[in-house]
Structures are given as structure tokens and as C-alpha cells.
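Pipeline run #58 for the internal structure catalog. This entry was flagged by the ingest filter as a single-chain record with no existing model, so it goes straight to prediction. Upstream metadata was stripped on purpose; only the residue string is passed forward. Reviewer on rotation: M.T. Logging verbosity set to normal.
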Amino acid sequence: MTPTLVREHLAHAGSAPPRVNPRKRARDWSEIQERMLVPLHETVHERLEVGPGTRLLGLGCGSGLALLLAAAKGAAVTGVDSRAAHLALARDRLRPDGPHDARLVQADSPADAAGADDPPYNLVTAYETIGGLGDHDGLDDTLAAALPMAARGAAVVLAGWGPPERCATSTVLRVAAKLAEPLRGARTWRPARRDDLEEVARRAGLKPDGSGRVACPFGYADADSAVRGLVSTGLFDTAIAATDRKQVGKELTESLHPYRRPDGTVWMPNVFRYLIARVP
């Protein structure tokens, strides 16, 4: 969901969840889940007129689909992520010998991607799942490190889940919270709040400059693909730690029943929200 919007949060924080293969997780994310967010990326790019004059810094860029979409419009893109398996897939998409002006950096902090002679960025994207885990300290730190690399007036895009009543996947994600209950106090899913994005922007010292909502339905070929895609977001990592991967898969499959179509496909309407803020 998450960098990248729905992200592998625990692995990003340096504590890989048990019984998780990072390469398989990254492949499931890039092949199944990441494309669900294309409407969000395209809407943001159109609204901000992303093109040849854009220098974009993607925080938590994952396997690079959002960067690829921006680069295809002529933007010069830099992606930063701590996850080697995800970045390996991003490098396959944005090859150094390819037609795009792209740079990818494996680092825990975007400050590690700063070059002394680099011109400032005029667009920073932080497609974190705000409202996903309820703990945004990591995102606060990431923004604090990234904003000195941005030009005055640069756009910073934050994004997250829309209202729970507009997100069918919220019902499924409640399984994560239920299964994680034995690990009280652990980071787990919670519904988005109305002002989550504005609160993150306020703490970062950014000035809100518009927002919007985008329909991002989650569609899967079958229930197995849905389980793999949802688990790849990292939102079920605490549930896996509290139980096991098999139990999580079983509970997820049952929760998907209302969204299965007669042909076996799974379809869940969702709305995501984005906020555009400006560097003062």
C-alpha cells in the first residue's frame, strides 16, 4: 500500500519480519500490488505538470513504478530506499543505459543521496501509507532529512488511505489488527483519520497547498494473488509475527469472500487521498 504508498514498514525500519523472503516480497509487490496505485501517481503528475523541468526525489521509492511514470514524462528522478530487493527491481526498470534520467540510491536516509553539486529538487514524493500503522516518526525523520535538498516553494506530496467507509480494503486490513492483538503495543494497521496528512505536513514545517482524492480499486486475478499482494504491503507483518504466515493467509482468504466475483477475481473499491504542501 506503502515508501511507496503501502510499504514493507517493519523491514524498512530495519527489523525484517519473521518468515519473510525479501526477494519474494519485493516481487509480489512489483508484480501484483504496486500497479494499484497508478491512478494516484498519474493524478499527482498531471496536477503538478510533471515534465522535463521536474527534478523529483522519491522517498521510499520501492520498485520504482512511480519514478518510471514520472521519468516517462521527461522528469529527472532520484529514488531512495533502504530495501535492496525492491531497489534491484527498480534498477531493472530504470536502467542506467536506458532512455530515462534516473538515479537510485540504497540508503536509510535521503541525506545519503545528497551530492554537493546537485541542484535542488522541485518535487518530493513521500507515498507512505499514512493512516496505515499510526506511527509516523519514521516519515517525520525522512522528511526532515529530505527537505534541505528541496528548493524553496518545492512541492511535497503526501498520500494515504481515504475514509474507511470509502475503502473496501479497510475491512480486510482489520484482520491485521485482530491477529496482531497478542503483541499489544506493536505497530499495526489503523483506519486513516481526516487530518493525518495535514498533521504530518505541519510537523515538517510545510505549507498545505491543495489536496485531492483518487479512486484506486484493488483488483486481483484470484484470492491467492490478493493475499500475496496484500501481504507484500507490510501491513500484515505484525500479524505474521504474532501468529504465522499460514494463519494470516487463511484469515485473509476468508475476509476476501465478500469481494470475490463469480469468475474468481477479487475487486475492492478504494479511495486514496493526497496532500500537496510547499517548502517555505
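catalog note: Residues 10 and 16 are 6 Å apart (CA to CA).
catalog note: DSSP finds eleven helices and nine strands in the chain.
status: ready for reviewer M.T.
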